[in-house]
Design a protein that fits this description.
Belongs to the amino acid/polyamine transporter 2 family. Pfam families: Aa_trans. It is found in: Membrane. It comes from Aspergillus keveii. It is a multi-pass membrane protein. The chain is an all-alpha fold and 472 residues long. It folds into 2 domains: 43 residues, no CATH class; 409 residues, Amino acid/polyamine transporter I (Up-down Bundle), CATH 1.20.1740. The protein is built from 16 helices and 3 strands. A 3-stranded antiparallel β-sheet has the order 1-2-3, with no helix packed on it. A hairpin with a 3-residue loop joins strand 2 and strand 3. It is globular and about 70 Å long.
Amino acid sequence: MSKISDKQVNDPEALGNVTSQYGGVQASASTAHDAVFGEITEDGPNYRNLGFWGTCVLMMKTQFGMGVLSIPATFDTLGIIPGVICLLTVGVMTTWSIYIIGAFKRRHPEIYSIDDAGFKMFGVVGREILGFAYCINWIFVSASGMLSISIALNATTNHGACTAIFVALAAIVGFVLSSVRTLGRMTWLAWAALTSILTAILALTIAVGIQARPDAAPQSGPWSSDWKLTNNPSFPDAVSAVASQLFAYGGVPGFFAIVAEMRDPKQYTRAMAVCQSVVSIFYLGIGVVVYYFCGSYVSSPALGSAGAMMKKVCYGLALPSLVFSVLLLTHMPAKWLFIRLLRDTPHLTSNTPRHWLTWLACTFFTNITAYVIASGIPIFNSLISLVGALLGTLLCLQPMGCMWLYDNWGSTRERKRDLRWRLGVAWAVFVVCAGTFIMGLGTYGSVRGIVDAYHSEGGSGSWSCRDNSNST
């Protein structure tokens, strides 16, 4: 096995040395060792090759995916004012959670994913519970991405083939593309994907502002948008809507993997601030404008709200982004499983037969599982509500509150237990309690929605050939 060259060790563009305090690469003249990946050589992938702007775009794309398409519908449930307040609250809470990920990684460089944090805080039980939730969450979200691709293909081709075929095609493409082994090699695709989804949503926003009425509204007779400043939903429906908003910010657990592959993790906080600022501005603008012009006739996914022609245009523009989402969302659990299987072995960073067989097996497993879920629960809105409530909160909020308490509760050397410390404790406890509350009631509301939808459809949605691009 060949060592990395002196040029690679000393060139941050080639390897990305960072100080050992931040959990980075410890390099000598002949070798480099990462706290997570182990010895990095020329014989394998360079897992530490993610620059600042690549980090920003991957963060934004991890957040800015299918979840944004459900935000106008949550405003229909809650009303604009409560919807905006809830969305801002969720944004603040998840931004804090993302910051805590970087701080925890800085203190504990051996952390790769949320299961490692769970092991440090709660032992083997914490590792297994959070690891299982992490893997299943991303697989479910990947399934939602496959559904989105099938919706886009149905919309752009006028239901040119059986929907089950489109979902299978999405799974095949996902397997091929998600087999790229490092995040650093995905950044140029991430830029194209981010441009794709932003263009599609801006086109939608402009279209709903200039057209006479949305596609789902009555097409004859007088019509005006029935948007509401406030609404009076049932309690489970309201919590389910908040869970959908949390799903829009649900890329939080993926930031563990992103910071682990950064060349210089000291830039993490700055990249996080860029990401959350851009994402929150777009979420608010898109949610308010689309709901204002469409009212209760807003579709979910929202790209179907601007009429038949614009639906084709919007989905056509968004298709590259949807494909990349499936790529990234299946890569995350596959990489987690791969590292867990090969960690502390030379096969993790070397192009051995075992390395490749394990990696391809992991990507195949995550893709085939996501395909089964996508085909079995083909209801976009209910699926994302369920994922956001059951797994999104568990991975986005509660562990980060516990991580702050773990690092700060018994620490009196760096800081006295002053007002700032007490406020930090109160906020961390609030995040844990709020996450648990949303998880419980949101899951109930989402499951009820899935049951009602299956009853109304006679259970015929699974592995169906029916056009799913006309759902609202």
